[in-house]
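Support request from a user on the community tier.

User writes: "When I paste my structure tokens into the form, the page sometimes reloads and wipes my input. The last time it worked, I copied everything first. Here is what I submitted, just in case something in the input itself triggers the reload:"
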């Protein structure tokens, strides 16, 4: 046994003199003052590793269960998840400094990954190293979200309809795109309750079954913002939850305007037909006789007293024969090939050889180029 030391302290296990570290407030300083290096390292463990780790993953979407919730992870495969979970469960001794570690996964079977971990660090100015092997078991389950999707769960319905007509294929396709984009944006923010349960095209339009009332309301609002129209809500009591509270399913009916951009309507006034350019908020368009801008007043909104007489797609190219004056031009009737005098709107290019015209029962009108 050694006798005497600068600090006057001795190892209680072997009796050798020990030196107290200069800074006694450092973590572990009290232990340093008690045991000599030899005795200290006999009991020292650089790493505290669990005997086994179980990772719960959703077999449908790949989400990982952490704490009390499912979390979407950006992992290439379950090996990445196993490495991350292992890193979270390993503990490194508080006295160790400059710790570095590496891991080598070994796929034992489809559900078991053996993690071979190697650690190095500095303790009491002494390099130390340690190895640990941790088996990670992958338990494949179904997360709450996928369970709801599989069970055709939904809390809201968005119905796409139109006033005095059927929504066009382009409108129904765009409504689906809007819904999918909105749900994707919600998913990107971490909302795992956001999903579309079912998309059904019907003779009347479109029905979307959505996961939550909030999602349904958001989709309906965005469809109206882009396509125009209005929204009505109709809640239906479906059940009671475990606390006895009433649970409602809400139907949001989006009713599109009677006219769409590209329609040509007769407002039964003396200013001539209007080519509809927008049905959002209130009806907007251009007068085919003059090219003047048209906008329905607030009271008429999107549904002024009008009659549809054609569509832009009905227009045919025909020859511009002559410019008569500031208010009239001559064109060839696309059916009879006779020269006909028609109004000259301000958007007409007087140097053009051909112009698109729409023929209806009230005559011919030149349409603006696309």
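"...and here is what came back when it finally went through:"
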């Amino acid at each position: 046994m050694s006798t005497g030391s600068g600090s006057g302290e001795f190892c209680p296990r072997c009796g050798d003199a020990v030196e107290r570290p200069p800074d006694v407030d450092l973590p572990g300083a009290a232990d340093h003052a008690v045991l000599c290096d030899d005795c200290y390292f006999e009991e020292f463990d650089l790493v505290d590793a669990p005997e086994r780790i179980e990772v719960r993953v959703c077999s449908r979407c790949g989400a990982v269960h952490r704490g009390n919730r499912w979390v979407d992870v950006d992992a290439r495969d379950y090996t990445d998840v196993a490495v991350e979970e292992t890193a979270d469960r390993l503990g490194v001794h508080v006295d160790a400094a400059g710790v570095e570690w590496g891991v080598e996964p070994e796929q034992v079977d489809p559900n078991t990954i053996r993690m071979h971990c190697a650690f190095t660090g500095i303790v009491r100015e002494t390099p130390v190293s340690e190895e640990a092997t941790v088996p990670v078991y992958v338990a494949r389950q179904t997360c709450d979200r996928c369970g709801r999707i599989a069970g055709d769960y939904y809390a809201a319905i968005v119905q796409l309809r139109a006033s005095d007509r059927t929504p066009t294929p382009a409108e129904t396709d765009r409504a689906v795109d809007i819904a999918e984009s909105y749900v994707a944006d919600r998913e990107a923010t971490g909302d795992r309750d956001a999903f579309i349960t079912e998309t059904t095209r019907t003779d009347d339009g479109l029905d979307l079954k959505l996961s939550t009332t909030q999602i349904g309301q958001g989709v309906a609002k965005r469809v109206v913002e882009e396509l125009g129209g209005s929204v009505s809500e109709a809640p239906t009591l479906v059940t009671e939850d475990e606390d006895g509270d009433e649970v409602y399913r809400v139907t949001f009916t989006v009713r599109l305007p009677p006219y769409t951009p590209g329609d040509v309507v007769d407002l039964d006034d003396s200013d001539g037909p209007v080519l509809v350019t927008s049905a959002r908020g209130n009806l907007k368009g251009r007068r085919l006789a003059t090219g003047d801008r048209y906008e329905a007043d607030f009271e008429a909104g999107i549904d002024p007293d009008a009659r549809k007489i054609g569509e832009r797609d009905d227009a045919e190219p025909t020859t511009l024969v002559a410019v008569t004056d500031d208010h009239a031009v001559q064109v060839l009737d696309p059916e009879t090939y006779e020269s006909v005098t028609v109004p000259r709107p301000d958007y007409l290019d007087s140097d053009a050889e051909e112009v698109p015209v729409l023929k209806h029962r009230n005559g011919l009108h030149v349409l603006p180029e696309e």
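Agent notes: The reload is a front-end session timeout and is unrelated to the input. The domain at 48-143 is CATH 2.60.40 (Immunoglobulin-like). The longest strand covers residues 126-141. Escalated to web team.
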